[in-house]
Structures are given as C-alpha cells and as structure tokens.
Design a protein that fits this description.
There is one protein chain. The protein contains 19 helices and 13 strands. The protein is α/β, with parallel strands linked by helices. α5 (about 100-115) packs parallel to α8 (about 160-170).
Amino acid sequence: MTQVCEPAHAEPWSQDAQKLLCDFLIDFADMRRPEFRTDLLEQVSRDPRCRDFDAAVQHEASARGHVRSMLTAASAWRDPLGAVEAICAALEVMAGTDRAFAWLQVAVRSVVDDQPLPVQQMEPLIRVLRALNPQPRPAELRLHAANAGKGLTALEGHETLPEILARIADLWGDQGAAVLARFLRSLAGDTTSRHYDSRASVRELLDRMELLEDGSAAQVTGDYRLIIQVRLEPEDAPHIADARYGLYATCYRQPQAGGVFKRVSSLTRPLSLRTSELNAHGSNSLTAWEGLADELDAVPAPATRVEFVLPSPLLGHPAELWATGPTGQALGHHHPVVVRSRERYIDTFISRQPWQGRWSHLSQRGIDGDVLELIGWPVMTPGKNHEFSSWIMERPDLACLGLRQPYEELDPLLQDAVNAAMFTDGIPAVMWVRTAAEPETLLQALRLHEPSCLTDLPDIIHQCRLEGRGAEDSDVRNHITLLWEDPDCVDRKQDLRFTGMVT
C-alpha cells in the first residue's frame, strides 16, 4: 500500500496569504538557525500527511529563502492545506512559547478553514492588529472579550490578542465573524483607553470591511438547510477483506433554494474503522461531535440532509441505519439520508456541464402530475452494457435512474456503465432497493407521499423509512438507497486534505 501524490489544485492560497505565512514563520526567533530549520523539516515529515516532505524542500542559506522554499513545497504538495497544518503543529512542539506562534495559528486557521474570516479579509486585519504598539494587555482584552458576548466567556485572563483571535477562530460559521466584529469594535472603540488614538487604523479597517455583529441575521432558521457529510476514505487496498476506512465528517449551511454552501463545523478527530465496525462505531463519532450538536439545535429537522460520501464498494452500505445518540435511534428515521460517490466528488476533471444540466431537470413537473414517471428504469442485461449506455445517451433530460437490482450486485461491465452514466453523462440521482424488489413496489410506497418533483425524493424516502420502521424487516421501505449528487455541494477545499491510495 503506497501513498501517491495527487495533483495539487492550482494556487491553494493567494500570494497575500503566502506572504503572510512567510512573514510569521520568519518571525520565529530560532528560524535564523539552520539547525532549527532542519529539525523543523524532520518534525514535519513525521506527520502522516507529510511523509518525506523534507525531501521536497530546496534548502536555502537565508532564513527567508528557506521559508519561501518550504511554503512553495507545501503549495505543490498532494495535500497543501494539510502541509501548512503540519508545519504549524511542528512549530507548536518545537517553539510553541514563541510569541510568533499564536499569530501563525490565526493565519493558518484563516488560510485552511476560512475562520473566523477568509484570509483575503483576515490578512490586512491581522497585519493591522499585529502592528499595534503597545499590544493590548490581557486584563484589557478580557474586558472587551466580555463585551463580545457568548463565545469568549471562558477566558482565564492571561490571553494575548492573537490567542483570543485563535479562540474566536474556533467558533465555526458566522458566529466567529460576529464575535470578532463585536470584540474588535469594543477594543478599538473604547474612548476611555489612553491608546484610543493609536487604534484608529483598526477602526478604519473595520468600517471598510463592514463586518456584521449579528452573525445570525443572514441565516434565520428556515432560510438554509444543514448538509452533514460523512466521508469514508479507503486506507487499505480494495481487495482486502474487512478493509479499513478513515472516517471524516463536515457540516455545511446551504440556502434552502440551493446553490453554494458554506462549511461551518468539522469533526476534529477522524476515526479509522474496519468495514465491520462502521455501523457500531461510526455513529459514535457523530454523537460526540459537539459542533454538529450546536448546528442541529439551530435548524429544524426537515431542513437537514445527511450525505454519506462513499467509495464505490460501499455505495450499498445501509448508512441510514446508523444509530446515534444515547437512545440509539436510526439516523434515517430522523433526517433524510443519501449516499454520494466519493469518486465523482474528488474528480476535478469531470465536466460539470452535463451534471449541472441534468440536475436542473430534477425540478421539472411530471406527466399528469406523476413525477415518479420521470425516473428511468432500463432493462440491464449482463453483457449488454453498450445497449444500456445508448439508452442513457438517448435521454438527455433523464435526471434520475432506477436500478432493478442493487448497484453492488450488478455485472461488473454494467456497473462500469452505470458509473459512466453518472460521471460522463451527468446522471445526478440513482435509486435502488437493496433487496432487488420490483420497481413498482418501490414506486407505490413513494406515491403515497405525492411528490411534486423529483427534488422531493430525499424527503419522501425519509418518510418511507420512518413509516417502515414498524413493518417487517423485508419491507421495501427499509432497504432503499438513494444516490443524490448535488453538484453545488462539493467542497473542493476539503478535498485537498485527502490522499489517494494504490496497491
């Protein structure tokens, strides 16, 4: 099993971000010593995300030249954001007490996670705050932190300005931006401070940035949906029985009308689980995810969708049966649960045009009001994959494909043809019953909920699962898989954190 270096995305961060990181790295007192720089690269290379990273760095005689070379290597690394995080983690071990470390932490959080603001906004703000002379004292900072309200109530009173900024960056979503605005306006606008005049640059910059102090104003309950993505990354070769997968999870807010979504929280401790452990232990990670609990409290259940981003061998995994919380109830009985193709999610070379085009057809109305008639159920005969491919290409408006047998049980050539229908022809929705029930049996269960268009599928399948919990285990409602690929819900920045695996 060997890690391969996947092509890095172009320009993982801006030139301004690169210069900011460079300036903060240079600011470490020990960075002037060649032996420290060598030890730093060795420490970074111990991180699983950055094996042999030191070999990719061109050693330079000057500290600035060496740091620039290190950041250039990071930007070209298979996981650029992970490399920057690894550099920061190594410096925490080696020089965590250096005054430069807290400022570097703030910059890295902004570059990697857009927290508390994207780096194009944070970069000038960080520079203005770092240039304050004198720097605000901890006692004064604590007073203004209290004025910022919820989010900075647990300070101990010794925190410096960059340490408070790093604390704010831990407040995911718009909450962090709102707390940042309140805190800085309180600090810079305090007319009783003898340093009021020296903070004019902060006030001017805040006025130009027009930061909202109420982060909830633009996200009133009901205006957005919560998208929870649980992602399984292969850690073993495909042929290994009971293979091991890395479990990662992130949640996003997306406007109810659809469109671009925003990351608001991530699972801080990814798990490594075998296939046989997914149901039993995977759900435990969701239960312990504090950031997710806060987001779920803020949005009504119907406005939540759980997406499992799975490699092809696991697309038939009954993800909706994951039991979460102390009551052990099935996830699919509380929220719509769909699956997604990991391969399509991470492949940047797949054309979005047919994918986006067919996605738009999911909202069209059906003939005589029966939108379920818009689902295509082709005959799939083993060895006749070419006929299936032709059938798909003859239907450019088809948006939802129904399989008469489970995806994982398809003839290998037919499974390849279904993959091509998704990846090349852009089919965004595929549905099947894991017990290979007749299509009409499934359609009868779905019709009871009178969908107005196919975009209702996640919700009506959720209703079917809810009603099926009291039926026989063989009931079709307990075995529905919906592959649901929203082309707008793809976090390319998140993709940079994952490496490919080959045998």
